[in-house]
Amino acid sequence: MPQDSRNLKITCLVILAFGLVSLLFGAVVILPAEPLPTGPIALVDSVLALFLGVQGARWANVPSNAKRVMRAAVVVLVLSLLLSLLVVLITQGTAVDALAVTVGAALLSLAILLLARVVARRLERA
User: Fold this and answer.
1) CA-CA distances (angstroms) from residue 103 to 1, 2, 3, 60, 75?
2) What phi and psi, each to the nearest 5 degrees, are found at residue 61?
3) CA 6 vs CA 16, 17, 31, 56: distances in Å
4) Long-range pairs for 58-63 at CB < 8 Å and ≥24 separation?
5) Shortest CA distance to 26 belongs to which of 9, 41, 6?
6) Mean of pLDDT over the chain
7) What is the dihedral of CA 122, 14, 36, 78, to 10 degrees?
8) pTM given for the model
């Protein structure tokens, strides 16, 4: 497996771990503490990150699936950014814990998008 494909696989596993941790964090800490709907927003974004991690790690085993990983990463990136904006608009930036979950998922999905693009470009050149 080439190094760029390995980096993509590792990053997918990182967002998988992030999704699991943020889902547990959201269920235990954010959901009971926040009266506003930021708890469910953080949980939805955690599930999105978990989905991208599981599917991305499965698809990254075959380098020709890089475009499929890119499409999934774009969807999760856009949804995470929209959820981040929603958290900021609802709470005026006071729900830092929910905002950290949504921004973290957005940054990791951006990293996956960029790495999948590198793999796809390498395959196009070959």
Assistant:
1) 30, 29, 27, 23, 14
2) -65, -25
3) 15, 17, 35, 12
4) 60/5, 60/8, 60/9, 60/12, 60/116, 61/9, 63/1, 63/2, 63/5, 63/119, 63/122, 63/123
5) 41
6) 91
7) 0
8) 0.90
**In the block, residue with structure tokens 């499929």:** 68
Q: Backbone phi, then psi, for 88, in 5-degree steps?
A: -65, -40
- Do 46 and 100 meet the contact criterion of CB atoms below 8 Å apart? no
Question: For the segment 47-87, what is each residue's pLDDT rounded down to a tens digit?
Answer: 999 999 999 999 999 989 999 999 999 999 999 999 999 98
> In angstroms, rounded to a whole number, what is the distance separating the alpha carbons of residues 11 and 8?
5
Q: What is the mean pLDDT of residues 113-126?
A: 92
What's the sign of the alpha-carbon dihedral 40, 78, 94, 90? Answer: negative
